Amino acid sequence: MKEQESAFKKKVLDQFLSGENLFGKQGALAPILKEFLEEALQAEMEDHLRDEEKGWPSGNKRNGTGSKTVKSALGEVKLDTPQDRNSSFEPKIIEKRQRILADSLEDQIIALYGMGSSMRDISSHIKEMYDTEVSTEVISDITDRVIPKVKEWQNRPLDEVYCIVWLDAMHFKVREEGKVRHKALYNILGINREGRKEIMGMYLSESEGANFWLQVLSDLHHRGVKDILIACTDNLTGFPEAIRSVFPKAEVQLCIVHQIRNSLKYVASKEQKEFARDLKRIYGADTKDQAESELLELEEKWGKKYPVVIRSWNSNWENLSTFFAYTKPIRKMIYTTNAVEGYHRQIRKVTKTKGAFPSDMALLKLVYLATRRIERKWSSPLQNWGLTVQQLAIKFEGRLNLDI
């Protein structure tokens, strides 16, 4: 007996010093873990049968054992699980369909998935780190547990007022009915009264358009948003009208960078640098009056050669020039959609290895997990927000109430 005990201790010490998994298939402590879990299951079965007899004599009895293998950060454990005749036994320590024993291992799998790792890469990582085989099917099942959280997050209540909101879409490929389709993922980034960034929502559609944006805005309103002070968007036709139909008091700022890019598409390549310099005099002006004078000069110089471009600036001018009403720090924030595009760049780092997603939900799961990780970095208000929010409160008197 002493020799067996000594050999056991030596095996534990050797495996511990060598860094081997003590609870793995060949681990010295694996039999102890197996024994403990099986005894706990047997105790749960006894309590279950006793409780059933208290409620009403059911005649339920033990009905042998089944076999089950569970994975954990400590290794893989094969268990003999007790069964009852009525199949009413629902164990708590290891649930019926539970195949992963440790929450920490599930958390690692979900974290790796949220960082863009493929199912195969996650399986290889778990095998290398814990000497535990976890199939891609099991990994898929684990990541599916995020789905209720995705839906809850998409439908959560929002604040009544947002100071600045950026609206933009990303485009992905999704397999649907045997075909690869292009999908638009609509994202809304907002700044609340405390000056903190927040992804207010994400919505998936076949394509980007003002009609679907109208549905998105209506959903924001349904979830509690009563007012948006400044809405920053790209130059999608009908977008400003869609915003004002739901939030009639919102000031709309079209993205200057999008307008410039769209303009230069129709300018001869040899004249693009000169044209861009002339455009800079417009959006770089100190006042709206000065900018409008520069716009007139642009029209006199280039109007005959590029009438479509000049017409675009004139027709969009009301929504392109909104930012001139603010101080330079606020102008810098709202005259482009850079804020939401910066968020998109971080999402692309996670999704860039994906060719086409197997389903809409696979895409939403990954973007949701990446978003939650990104949002953890947004724990502090924007720089100098105290000064900015005071200016907004003065400009939008009665619509933005500060807690002073």
Report on this structure.
The chain is an alpha/beta fold and 404 residues long. The chain folds into three domains: 1-93, no CATH class; 159-251 and 360-404, no CATH class; 256-336. The protein is 50% helix and 17% strand. It is built from 16 helices and seven strands. The protein has helices at 2-18, 30-55, 103-114, 119-130, 136-144, 147-154, 210-222, 239-246, 256-264, 272-283, 288-302, 307-320, 328-334, 338-351, 360-375, 385-395; strands at 62-72, 75-84, 161-176, 179-191, 197-205, 227-233, 251-254. The strands form two sheets. The chain has a five-stranded mixed sheet, with helices on both faces. Strand 3 and strand 4 (179-191) form a beta hairpin. Helix 7 (210-222) packs parallel to helix 8 (239-246) and helix 10 runs antiparallel to helix 11. It is elongated and about 95 Å long. The termini are far apart. One of its GO terms (biological process) is DNA transposition. This is Mutator family transposase.
Share of helix among residues?
A: 40-55%
Mean pLDDT: 83
Unreliable spans are none
User: How many β-strand stretches?
Assistant: 7
Through-space gap between termini: 76 Å
> Total number of helical segments?
16
Shape: elongated
Q: How can the largest sheet be summarized?
A: 5 strands, mixed
Structural domain count:
3
Radius of gyration: 30 Å
Reading the helices and strands in chain order gives HHEEHHHHEEEHEHEHHHHHHHH
GO molecular function: DNA binding; transposase activity
Pfam families: Transposase_mut
Family: Belongs to the transposase mutator family.
Organism: Indibacter alkaliphilus (strain CCUG 57479 / KCTC 22604 / LW1)
